[in-house]
UniProtKB/TrEMBL annotation:
It comes from Ferroglobus placidus (strain DSM 10642 / AEDII12DO). Pfam families: Thioredoxin. Transmembrane segments: none annotated. Residues 1-121 form the Thioredoxin domain. SUPFAM superfamilies: Thioredoxin-like (SSF52833). This is Thioredoxin domain protein. GO terms for cellular component: cytoplasm. One of its GO terms (molecular function) is protein-disulfide reductase activity.
Length: 121
């Protein structure tokens, strides 16, 4: 679902659980304000580990729909600069608007779920 769909309350379908692209602080801040738990993946085109994480992130986005918001941000954004992202993939876990965890590199499905533990009530 795009930002306009979210703003206008259009329903998400099963295919559209995320992750959603975010490129600016204003976009990120809207998601952080509206969601208790947010995972941001920093990626780059041509990154094999990033590509390997796609299916895992999409699966988790569907599984945790309504509980965790999954976002993607390119490695070369102001968001990546602010959070000192130096390699891809890098994942940030925000809880109540604050970074609680940071993880560099690919993870298995189970490792990712464990990494997110404590986020979902």
């Amino acid at each position: 679902m795009g930002l306009l769909d979210k703003l206008f309350g259009r329903e998400q379908d099963e295919e559209d659980a995320g992750p959603f692209d975010v490129e600016s602080f204003s976009e990120l801040n809207r998601y952080l304000k509206d969601n208790r738990c947010v995972v941001v993946e920093f990626w780059m085109r041509g990154c094999s580990p990033c590509k390997a994480m796609d299916a895992i992130v999409k699966r988790l986005a569907k599984e945790y729909r309504g509980k965790v918001m999954f976002l993607k941000s390119h490695f070369r954004t102001e968001i990546a600069d602010k959070y000192k992202v130096k390699s891809v993939p890098t994942f940030l876990l925000f809880v109540d608007g604050k970074v609680r965890k940071k993880k560099r590199g690919a993870m298995s499905y189970e490792a990712f779920k464990n990494w997110m533990s404590g986020c979902v009530r």
